Amino acid sequence: MRTSTILIITAVIITLICLAAYNFNLKASYLRGDYKNPFYGLEYNAVKNINALEIESANKISIRVEQGKTEGLWIRDRIKDKLVWSKVGGVLKIDLTKEAKESDFHVNGQELILITPNMYKIVAHPYIIKTNQDGWNYEGYIGIAGFHQDSLTLDLGSAIYASLDQMQLSTLNAVVGDQKNGNTNLVLSNTNEIKSAVFNIPGKSKLELQNPTIVKTNYIVTDKATVSLNGKALQALNQP
Asked: 116 and 75: one domain?
């Protein structure tokens, strides 16, 4: 048998062995239920005493912010060298490296999770690419869930999709989008209970209330804003 033939056969055998090993590991991972673990494949970073979050390049970052006792920032290996973060007092600051900002890099869902007992303020600013002043070629995501506390303040810049779930708040103050670019969405599901909420939509952005429980609501909107109501939120407008 010629040497070239032997090399080809050897390469095929090695490939088959590698595929078999990969399939075995994949099946083992499935049987363990790794796919059900939201932190699977993420690296834990201890971050203590956080009560506020500031996100730069927010239109290129997806992050989940959830209430929990085990404080920390969970980061997928793919993004850790592209992510810049620091703690200043009780504020966690998150951004991307200059190289990541100027490329087509994007932090996807399930790659960045912040767990903290309390979160009183979230500020998010987009990174506007010079060749696209609207900055709408990307849309970031902020999923906020599970906080039972007195207040929450949101200041969301353009090109962001944010959601609130399972929140119990006395007061919510939310600025949705900016006046110039807009293109931001804030969605409140029916699992939220809020005593008083103020929604300020200065530009072409959208607020969607999917039947949350809100006792008192104040809207500050322009003619470019969109507000979508149903359920109890809509009934409140019809009351004399």
From this structure: yes
In whole angstroms, give the CA distance from residue 200 to residue 178: 10
pLDDT-derived band at 135 (thresholds 50, 70, 90) equals very low
Measure the CA–CA gap between 66 and 143, rounded to whole angstroms. 8
Q: Which domain holds residue 29?
A: 1-36
Cβ(193)–Cβ(216) below 8 Å: no
The answer to whether 117 and 138 have CB atoms below 8 angstroms apart is no
Residue 118 sits in the same domain as residue 209: yes
End-to-end CA distance of the chain: 93
The first and second tokens of residue 99, run together, are 């190289």
Phi, psi of 99 (to 5 degrees): -60, -45
Enter the pTM of the model: 0.82
